[in-house]
Amino acid sequence: MANIVVLGTQWGDEGKGKIIDLIAPAFDVVARFQGGHNAGHTVYINGKKIVLHLIPSGILRRGKLCIIGNGVVINPQAFLDEISELKKFGVEIDKNIVMSDKAHLILPYHSSAEKVSEKSRGAKKIGTTSRGIGPSYQDKAGRLGIRTGDLLDLDVLREKIEQNVTEKNIYLRHYGAEIFDPEKIFEAYADYGQHLKTYLADVSLILDDKIKEGRTVLFEGAQGTLLDVDHGTYPFVTSSNSTIGGVCTGLGIGPNKIDAVWGVSKAYTTRVGGGPFPTEIADDTGRLLLERGNEFGATTGRPRRCGWLDAVAVAFSCRINGISHMILTKPDVLDGLEEIKVCVEYRYKGDRLRSFPSESWILDKVEPRYKKIRGWKKPVHGIRDYSKLPQAFKDYVKFIEDFIQAKISLISTGMERKDSVLIEEDLKHAMNLEKIRAEL
Ligand code: GDP
Ligand code: IMO
Ligand code: MG
Predict the structure, then answer these.
(1) How confident is the model at residue 297 (pLDDT cuts 50, 70, 90)?
(2) CA nearest 51: which of 65, 40, 62, 63?
């Protein structure tokens, strides 16, 4: 059996959490490689909702080792709060969570710096989650960052906090924002160190050992390809590599340890925050998708912008990531629509674009061209058996597969684990289907 990456192919919230939780029984390890508590991965278990932010969505399955890689940025309080929530839910937390000692920390001044930056952008603000994610990655790249491993040496920690706070306070004071007392931050983070130390380890080494022992790993993406700092709709992106390269750098593994890359795409498109969105629907259909799809941010509660499926964007994501198989989520939200549109071409200044453009200001002005597809009369909501899917829906799936050049191998038809069509002939090569079925 194989080590598989599952990542988003749109602007996040594709339903990665549900899928990871669904297929986790077939794997031994579930590993996050980037992002932070800006992510909100929702899982429903018998009507009960759980939202994971930092901890891999495999945690809800007994006996899975959940790894948080060096590419993830950590707010220690958010991490500890998430563990408390999970415990309240009856999830056992023992030796099943490991965090890289090279992961960078989010400190209180990061959120303040983010507020200042967003305010100064005015109408062009990114619409971030205000979690301090961007400024923490900025410090990492700027070689000022403080890592989880630094929490273990109090002299090192104190020196780094003093250096950072001195610098940040100059900036914050200039913009009239709250300034910070380094001693208070030091005390709080020294205390976090006491709580975090049992989780810290060299995750690259652990993964290498596990893979050598023949254990299988599921790599869980956060955000989506179009939010990737390099390949996404820059600058309206997050600050990490949510695309395939992030797996290797964010966990310290070689690409030869990855056997396949699976993408997740909604049957339509959503986006939270600012930035271009060619297939956004302004009329009542957009509102219908918002309401039926319950499209409210899992982290910030903000209503998500809704639009038609953008197959040009998803095909681009397949190329960037080398996606062989696709997981389609939320087609049930389109149940009953007479007509469904799929964007198959962009025009810019009258010319057809060969691919998804790299500049946001071009994307802002592209004219999407649609293929109109007949809707399916019989609802797909809750269907679990491929043979029971209506023919019009199967035709729609085939159309998307041909366009994006990837096989749709799993179809989610609702929020619950059981609401899933597992396409056996595709899945059986990649994961142990019996184990998934046994825990449905
Ligand atoms: P993630 O960030 O990619 O994990 O996605 P989110 O959890 O932020 O958003 C996806 C939302 O869609 C969640 O509320 C899920 O419970 C829900 N969801 C996932 N799959 C399906 C599906 O097939 N049908 C419906 N109706 N809801 C789904
Ligand atoms: P999951 O993992 C959807 C968006 C924010 C904003 C931009 C930058 O649940 O799919 P940031 O706080 O990261 O600096 O914000 O990225 N964003 C997400 N949108 N799903 C997410 O995660 C997101 N994480 C960040 O709304 O537009
Ligand atoms: Mg989400």
Answers:
(1) confident
(2) 40
Q: In the chain, pLDDT over 90 holds for what percent of residues? A: 98
Contacts of 150 (CB under 8 A, 6+ apart): 105, 156, 157, 160
- Count CB-CB contacts under 10 A for residue 201: 14
Using an 8 Å Cβ cutoff, are 41 and 29 in contact?
A: no
Output the six-digit token pair for 153: 């040496």
At residue 387, the 3 state secondary structure works out as helix
Question: Which pLDDT tens digit goes with each residue over 230-262?
Answer: 999 999 999 999 999 999 999 999 999 999 999
Model confidence over 3-56: pLDDT tens digits?
A: 999 999 999 999 999 999 999 999 999 999 999 999 999 999 999 999 999 999
Q: Is 426 a catalytic residue?
A: no
Q: Select which of 21, 28, 37, 41 is catalytic.
A: 41
CA trace torsion 207, 212, 214, 217 (10° rounding): 20
Those residues whose C-beta lies under 8 Å from the C-beta of residue 377, and which sit 6 or more positions away, are 336, 390, 392
The pTM assigned to this predicted structure is 0.98
Q: Who lines ligand 2 at CB under 6 A?
A: 8, 11-13, 38-41, 126-129, 131, 133-134, 222-224, 227, 238-239, 272-273, 298
408: β partners: 326
